[in-house]
Write a structure and sequence with these properties.
The chain is an alpha/beta fold. The chain folds into two domains: 282 residues, Alkaline Phosphatase, subunit A (3-Layer(aba) Sandwich); 145 residues, Gyrase A, domain 2 (2-Layer Sandwich). The chain is built from twelve helices and 23 strands. α6 runs parallel beside α8.
Amino acid sequence: MRHVVYCSIPGLRQSDLSDMPALSALTATGDQQPLRSTFPAVTWPAQATMLTGKTPSEHGVIANGFYWREEQKVEMWTAWNDKIQAPQIWDRLHAISPDLTSAVWFPMLSKGCGADWICMPAPVHNPDGSESLWCYTKPTQLYGELLESLDHFPLKHFWGPLSNIQSTEWIIRSAVQAISKNQPRFSFLYLPHLDYAAQKQGPNSTEALAAVEELDAVIQVLADGVHAALNPVDVTWVFASEYVISEVNHVTYPNRVLRDAGLLQVRVEDDGEHLDLNSSAWALVDHQFSHVFIKDADPEVIQRVQQLFESVDGIAEVLTVEKQAERGLAHERSGELMLISTSNSWQAYYWWLQDDACPAFARTVDIHRKPGYDPVELYFDRATHSTPLDATLICGSHGVPSADQDQQSVIVSNNPDLLQSRSWSDLDLAEMLIAEVCRED
């Protein structure tokens, strides 16, 4: 039986492979090819595109968060798998045969998915505001089994100022344990380690290059563990960039632009100014793009906002719904407009005009209450217990596929026939992986 192990690695560049001897040895019999990322090249949409072979307009994952209009509620990083509106690889494998089993390790929208074995972080939120470490697993008792041999998943090392190789190593060791016991035909592993230093210090920084070497070392652990459990000749390895991180030296603040134009309102509460989601226009920002939601889809406001951002430094394009449709981005969850950054710029969620007016959560590590992604949390100061409010600290971002030839995504496999010496798109991966699982030697 063929076993396919697919590893999705954010930030992996073709140029990094020369510094990864373990990965190179593992795939020495195979091939590597360029990989084109679908916009927006950020975690949730990228993973959904890889797993379905569909565009955001078809699978509905239009960002790393959602704005639910009827509830006037922003949901960041907590959604379940039912938000993906297209069959995923494990669903399609099950439709072929129930014997084509899957293990899914840490993709962000995997809670409640149809795979046979699942593990992803799901800390318990206690009434006093604290969190208890835990993971969502299928079957439920699986996390208890992992605890006995590995202790808790090190959540504090998964995101934020303490992010390091320990989280990716835990993902790998727990996946090896599950693969060894259950021998799934398809395994999906999300290995996030390259994300952190590349955003904080830049993709070409000393810290980012060191992270490449650290990741390669734990890939060796993965290879040794899988090959001890499965016959190596029956294992197809596939490693693919989830996206590539580009250097940035500029930041745009869409919500401040909207506020200055009188289109965004705030609510003054005890702890500062909070965004009023009933504003005429506001932006849900996500790395190098944002969705601008316009109340009642007012055509006059849409036109005004479009004209407003066409002259804003750091914004390369303003996409109307019609333009979004042309690019496979239009969906009922999308904003009436999308703002796309220039390659050297990213977008911060800030709406306050003076730092002393920010809401309390702005100075914390809080991925759920912020209506947008905040990489500045990587600079959280443990001495002051505070996240700085200086978005210019960030040196790397993503979302807009890089045009720099030295910053190209890559796909690598140990199967010499799999990649067929051609350029690949992330839209092609689901079909290719399904065919490889079903391949008979």
